[in-house]
Amino acid sequence: KTKRRNSIFDDTTINETQMRIALLSLTFFTEGLALYHGLLQPTVYTQTAVLPLLIACTLLCCIYYLLQRGIYAVLGYTFAALFNESFVSVHLIIGLFLTPAALTMIFIPEYTYEALWACILLYATARVIIVIMGIRIFLPLNFEILYIILYLCALEIAPLLVINKAIPLIHQFVELNLL
Predict the structure, then answer these.
(1) In the chain, which end has fewer C-beta atoms inside a 10 angstrom radius, N or C?
(2) Cα–Cα distance between 160 and 15 in angstroms, integer?
(3) At CB < 8 A and 24+ separation, what contacts does 64-67 make?
(4) What is the pTM of this model?
């Protein structure tokens, strides 16, 4: 029997899904490592529990992505289906660009500050690309400026506010597990 499809390009293959999961895992790890170095500023001589803090930072990045992905799914369903694919594509690629900076932070600690700034610039560039792609989706569809403001508030500002409230909770959780 054959499976009926609307288009041969609709479905993703198992290999593509596995590659997406691997690239997203790389993205979460590199973002978590940059967040760990940016927030905690560890020194080479610090031997306190690095792994739980690194895992917490990586999970924070994963939760932030999933939160935004959920909001993108709702707005994509409402306005344009192009939201989800463009958002995922940018996050798949940013992990590859952050990898050299993350490896620099690990293996050449004296350049951690410069690598951290490289991560910040790369991530900011990715966010600008996502915003531009969102605006390009709304403008051709003749939506008003109100929808673009809704997009910016829902996808760029609201997840940051949620994560801002979640950081103290995660910090307390990690501290309790370390004691």
Answers:
(1) N
(2) 32
(3) 64/159, 64/163, 65/24, 65/27, 65/28, 65/91, 67/159, 67/162, 67/163
(4) 0.72
Does residue 100 carry a pLDDT above 90? Answer: yes
> How many CA atoms are closer than 13 Å to the CA of 101, on its beta-carbon side?
26
| Sign of the C-alpha dihedral computed for residues 155, 158, 163 and 169 taken in this order | negative
Letter string b/e over residues 11-40, b meaning 16 or more CB atoms within 10 A of that residue's CB: eeeeeeeeeeeebbebbbbbbbbbbbbbee
Supply 59's token pair.
Answer: 């999970």
Instruction: Supply the pLDDT for residue 79.
Output: 64
| Six-digit token string for 134 | 């969102």
| C-beta atoms surrounding 7 within 10 Å | 6
Q: Which amino acid is at 39?
A: L
